[in-house]
Amino acid sequence: MLVVMKNDASEAQVDAVIKEIEKMGYRGVPMPGAIRTAICVLGNKGPIEAGRLLAIEGVKEAIPVTRPYKLVSRETHPDSTIVTIGDVKIGGGDPVVMAGPCAVESEEQALTIADIVKKHGARIFRGGAFKPRTSPYSFQGLGEKGLKILEKVRKETGLLIITEATDTENLVSVEKATDIIQIGARNMQNYALLRLAGQTRKPILLKRGLAATIEEWLMAAEYIMSEGNSRVILCERGIRTFADNTRNTLDLSAIPSIKEASHLPIIADPSHAAGRRDYVISLSRGAIAVGADGLIIEVHHDPAHAMSDGMQSLYPHQFEQLMQELNKLKGYL
Ligand code: PEP
Ligand code: MN
Description:
This protein is an alpha/beta fold. 34% of the residues lie in helices and 18% in strands.
């Protein structure tokens, strides 16, 4: 349920509503809006007796929330959320591009690629220091050393950094080093990690699980928000289907579905969806055309020797072409 306060409701009246909600055995989370404050009731399993809340001074109305997720729902927060990091806005209408290698391999590799993606207009540098690999024998990432390299990339280029936390142990050092914490597809339902991510003060990029429904994905985002971190960005990165022409199937329809159900920004990852570089530009155009707030793209200066995901990494000239095409598209958005 959402308890909507009158425009001129005082802070004391908001507090009185929260206290009453707590007396009923639930949690009340205030959601200040431009005109009035609303209070979201969390923890109830069935309908709530609204009369007790409507009787409190300053309460305008009580609206039942029909979705199982509350804080991420557009029902409780009609305006789209913009996640601001420095002077970069994700969800503000201008698509934001995050780009870089799948994995940080060396300082030289990271700086070379960062210079390339910066030159062509990327605002955020991606690169995994901790890598969740399907095989235990594959390169697992440089770990802490990779985080140090990412900090150097930020210092030398001014680009913001996104990198993945793969478990609750490395989340703490990832949080210190990065501007955005990525939670990967394989970890979308790692609830301990989601809760801990919710306790950080850094924005979280939450990738869709390989076989997750929209509802499961939004419930995962709800875990993060219910711990107090409202800066969540969703990422459609392709799902497992019967199709074998691509590594995964980029679910473009997820983008309007998320926009309808939630106020959170959503970006697309055509690299992991396609698994092959020659489809990345077309899928990027598609994602932006259906309303994605940005893209995360794998780029490598020498993909043939990349330590992970070389097949799907764009050559520098392809990344340049992608950015030019996106600029042309902007005129139509
Ligand atoms: C990645 O971004 O390199 C990655 C491992 O992504 P995903 O979790 O989507 O597979
Ligand atoms: Mn990758």
